[in-house]
Amino acid sequence: MADSSKVNEFITYYENNKFNNKEKFMLMIVIISSFDDYLSEGIGTEEIRIWNRIKQNILKDDKLHTTTLYTIRQEFTPRGEV
Which label site among 27, 38, 39, 81 has the fewest CB atoms less than 10 Å from its CB? Predict the structure, then answer.
C-alpha cells in the first residue's frame, strides 16, 4: 500500500476526509511508510515540507497516534538518550 510517489496525495486525503480512529491510524501508517520510501529513494526535494505536514497531522491527533510518536522517537533517538 505504501507508495512514495503518492505521499502528498495520502496526506491530503487524510486532511480532507472524515475517518474513524481506526481508519486514521491505518492511513497514517501508510503515510509514514510512503514517506520512508520517499526518503530511501533519495530523489525527493521536499522532505522538510512533507515531514512538516505529517507532523502537523500526527500532533493534531496526538492521542490517536501516541504509539506512532513513541515508535518514531525510539527509532530516531540514539541509544541511551531516550
Answer: 81
